[in-house]
Specification:
Blueprint (H helix, E strand, L loop, with lengths): L1 E5 L6 H8 L5 H9 L3 E3 L2 E2 L11 E5 L17 E4 L3 E6 L16 H9 L23 E7 L2 H12 L4 E9 L6 E5 L2 E3 L7 E3 L4 E2 L2 E10 L2 E8 L6 H8 L24 E9 L6 E5 L4 H11 L2
Parallel strand pairs: 7-15
Antiparallel strand pairs: 1-4, 2-3, 2-4, 5-6, 6-7, 8-14, 8-15, 9-13, 10-11, 10-12, 13-14, 15-16
Length: about 300
């Protein structure tokens, strides 16, 4: 693939390309520059090059290596299943779908073994059945579609916010109010392409409703309901209001919490309209063991 970009503002060439093509990480853009795949006015340029407004950049992006997705007999905690949908309680640490660096051991690999050919194909061979995602280090309920009709119906519910997803988490600090809403757009971080942030630039609307469940000394147990579903939304929003999630080393403290296995964020409840019967389906799963132990320690002070 070759993309042609017209420069509209001053800046380093790697930064300008990463902002104009958010699907590419800055590290990948720099690799393209090192390989001579970026030219300005017909000449290959380095990452420190600063084009002028009006200059034309040509970016050559090689075809990605094809990933082979295979079924793997990985145990699944199936909470609900019928001929149209399957809902799984995903464990912390499991990636949802294959990607470079995570070609196996994913939820998709497990679903392919469990469901066989009964997965929707709308999202292509790398994401069969996947309607929405949750982070690798977030546990809890995730729904997959077994056919394209079910996938389209569930995707519409995601778009109009009738598919309800409720999470529980422990955050640092004490929230002043008992409930509230964070309405702040979320987009890619301007300098760290692996992170998201609250920003007005190249962002999408994001709304998280929260309520306090329990209070402890220096921590708060919170329920969050997503109105939108942006990447890392709850983690970004809670950090944005000054209360990052306990154990989140990306948006909170950089060092892991002693005795805690990851971040305390769990997708606990899921409500949707069944794509075939049109009846509401409400599901819930228990908190994982590490989360329960963290709450017990906090309750003991």
């Amino acid at each position: 693939m070759t993309a042609t970009l017209t420069v509209t503002e001053s800046g380093r060439v790697d930064t300008l390309i990463a902002e104009a093509m958010p699907e590419l990480s800055r590290a990948f853009v720099q690799k393209l520059l090192e390989e001579g795949r970026v030219t300005c006015q017909g000449r290959a340029v380095k990452k420190s090059f600063r084009p002028e407004p009006g200059d034309e950049l040509v970016v050559e992006v090689p075809e990605p290596d094809k990933l082979e997705v295979t079924a793997e007999d990985i145990p699944l905690d199936v909470v609900y299943e019928d001929r149209d949908v399957i809902v799984v309680n995903k464990p912390k640490g499991m990636v949802v779908h294959p990607a470079p660096g995570h070609q196996d051991g994913t939820l998709v690999n497990a679903l392919m073994a469990h469901c066989g050919a009964d997965l929707s194909g709308i999202n292509g061979v790398l994401r069969p059945g996947i309607v929405h995602r949750i982070d690798k280090d977030t546990s809890g309920l995730i729904i997959a579609a077994k056919n394209d009709a079910a996938h389209r119906a569930l995707a519409e519910q995601l778009a109009d916010h009738t598919l309800s997803r409720t999470y529980e988490c422990v955050v640092l600090g004490n929230l002043r109010e008992d409930s509230g809403t964070v309405d702040a757009p979320v987009g890619r971080h301007p300098t760290d392409r692996k992170r998201m942030c609250v920003t007005e630039k190249n962002a999408k609307p994001a709304v998280t409703h929260w309520e306090v469940l329990e209070r402890y000394s220096g921590y708060t147990y919170v329920r969050c309901r997503l109105e939108t579903g942006r990447t890392h939304q709850i983690r970004v929003h809670m950090a944005y209001i000054g209360h990052p999630i306990l154990g989140d080393t990306v948006y909170g403290a950089k060092k892991p919490v002693p005795g805690l296995e990851g971040q305390c964020l769990h997708a606990k409840r899921l409500r949707f309209i069944h794509p075939a019967t049109k009846e509401p389906v409400e599901l819930e799963c228990e908190l994982p063991g590490y989360f329960v132990k963290a709450l017990e320690r906090l309750r003991r002070g």
